[in-house]
Amino acid sequence: MVKRSCPSCGPETGGEEKKGRGNPISVQLFPPELVEHIISFLPVRDVVALGQTCHYFHEVCDAEGVWRRICRRLSPRLREQGSGTRPWKRAAILNYTKGLYFQAFGGRRRCLSKSVAPLLAHGYRRFLPTKDHVFILDYSGTLFFLKNALVSSTLGQIQWKRACRYVVLCRGAKDFASDPRCDTVYRKYLYVLATREQLGVVGTTSSRACDCVEVYLQSSGQRVFKMTFHHSMSFKQIVLVGQETQRALLLLTVQLALRKMSHCLPHLRVACMASNQSSTLYITDQGGVYFEVHTPGVYRDLFGTLQAFDPLDQQMPLALSLPAKILFCALGYNHLGLVDEFGRIFMQGNNRYGQLGTGDKMDRGEPTQVHYLQRPIALWCGLNHSLVLSQGSDFSKELLGCGCGAGGRLPGWPKGSASFVKLHVKVPLCACSLCSTRECLYMLSSHDIEHHPAYRDLPASRVLGTPEPDPGSIAPQDPGGTAQACEEYLSQIHSCPTLQDRMEKMKEIVGWMPLMAAQKDFFWEALDMLQRAAGGVGQGPPTPES
Question: Is residue 303 a part of any domain in this protein?
Fold first, then answer.
């Protein structure tokens, strides 16, 4: 019998040893190489749990030798461990947690499924669904082509499956993009930013690494175009913007023809970009946000006016007024979402279907905070709905959505919601990004130990946007009109003729109020219980008619 004896914990206390068991042996008597070899055969989840038992096992389970063996067991074809302060541990966890999950909106089976996992993939960094297939970029720069195909089921039937086969499209990829429109029907071509070795001076064998843009057919993966740049030009991101007949290709950090953003604000350094067919959003390294809007209709939806729109100078960058540094964003057709360094979510634009999650359907011409949501993992804006991937205190993930629910795009909420509500989707434990199409919801799973949460704690004086009041001072006034809204809600409930009508009206009002998803679920369930106790007919969880 082997017994753990840790210097920090001391030998384990216990009664007399049972007969036939013999004396306990300290695990520290074994050579460290042997202990590491034994631990490397455990599943990753058990290795992490074992490392939390005591100081000795924490050091053993955190050793790079253990993670090197685990990484080679998970990915035998991985030749290099990658980069970072803990390269083998990072590589092992990236490959253990990688996965692409999807849930179809139509059909009988509406459950979460997992795509085929390419054996050569070194984690998943980014993905993009196109008209017929899905493309995934890993951390080593390999772009994979996941195909939909007809396969034979276990019962011998032929059925159509998503992302069930894969091939390597290209290597050395830095980034990729497709048609900026929300509908995947238009994504017929894939634009890949890659690095290729090019011959140097004619007559010599030397070569230089040059960036290039390659265009592939998404249906077959055939390359139809290639454009190579001078070796002195280096890029890190590619996006497409504009209508199909006036398509522009934007490259970061150096562009073929400088946009107005670079001419007007040469002192600002753009950190990342987002685009759709009518606008482009830039986030600087200091967290500032600048906008290009190219059509008057989208400009009116985003800002509520056409006063500053100039049809002759559509590339003029517009600065958004925000209270803090912006970390990342999501850009829909006529609305957008921003997340700042304190984890606050700001929404702006068209709110016809409640896609801003503000609890109403009033358009917002400037960034408006969604107070009941904080510190999201991912944010996504579509044509007329929005999704937020959040994490609970117990590290469990949940998916929230608002806006139009037609076509099943908000699972569990067919009539939509003007507030973010918890969707009926089982979210993977390590989900990190998401995307929704007309037919399917996709979630990418990958955990990078080098990517730590960048959110800061909000200073106490800024929690309410005003300085903290003294304990003896008068309570602050209600700037949002909450008291007046509650009085209006009570008036609506009082006007209902029967108890059942009042219950239904109360359920509807709960959907309007800016509450957290768990709070709304609680109130709806409690109202259902009261309704059944009073002889109502409500059965099961309420339908979100709000």
Answer: yes
Query: Helix, strand or coil for residue 419?
Result: strand
Q: What is the pTM of this model?
A: 0.77
Q: Select the highest-mean-pLDDT range: 101-105, 164-168, 351-355.
A: 351-355
Q: CA 357 to CA 512: how far, in whole Å?
A: 10
Say how far apart CA 280 and CA 248 lie, in whole Å: 11
Judge whether residue 102 has pLDDT over 80: yes
Residue 365 is encoded by which pair of tokens? Answer: 């011409």
What does the pLDDT read at residue 511?
73
Number of alpha helices (DSSP H) and beta strands (DSSP E) in the chain: 10, 30
Q: Is 84 left (phi over 0), alpha (psi -120 to 50) or beta?
A: left
Query: 67 in helix, strand or coil?
Result: helix
Between CA 536 and CA 311 the distance in angstroms is 58
**Quick check: 96 and 183 in contact, CB under 8 A?**
no
How many structural domains compose the chain?
A: 2
Write out pLDDT tens, residues 316-363: 788 888 889 999 999 998 999 999 999 999 999 999 999 999 999 999
Q: Name the token pair of 411.
A: 């699972």
Q: How far is it, in rounded angstroms, from Cα 345 to Cα 326?
A: 10
Structure tokens at 201: 């001076």
**pLDDT for 477:** 44
Q: Which of 337, 314, 334, 317 is nearest to 326 (CA)?
A: 337
Q: Is the pLDDT assigned to residue 77 strictly greater than 70? A: yes
> Among residues 42, 63, 96, which one ends one of the domains?
96
Give pLDDT tens digits for 465-500: 444 444 443 344 444 456 777 777 787 888 888 888
Q: Is residue 438 a part of any domain in this protein?
A: no
**Which of 525, 522, 520 is closest to 542 using CA atoms?**
525
Phi, psi of 89 (to 5 degrees): -65, -40
Cα(505)–Cα(511) distance, integer angstroms? 10
Which residues lie below 8 Å from residue 304, measured CB to CB, with a gap of 6+? 363, 364, 365
Q: Which of 317, 400, 331, 385 is nearest to 355 (CA)?
A: 385
State which residues form the domain around 48: 26-76+87-96
**Residue 443, pLDDT score:** 95
Distance from the Cα of residue 226 to its chain's centroid: 31
What's phi and psi for 520, nearest 5 deg? -65, -40
Contact assessment for residue 7 and residue 56, using Cβ atoms and an 8 Å cutoff? yes
DSSP structural state of residue 29: G
Contact 374, 345 (CB under 8 A): yes
In DSSP notation, 467-530 reads PPPPTTSPPPP-TT-HHHHHHHHHHHHHT-SSHHHHHHHHHHHHHHS---HHHHHHHHHHHHHH
Percent of the chain with pLDDT over 90: 34
Q: What is the CATH number of the domain that holds 44?
A: 1.20.1280.50
More confident residue, 520 or 333: 333
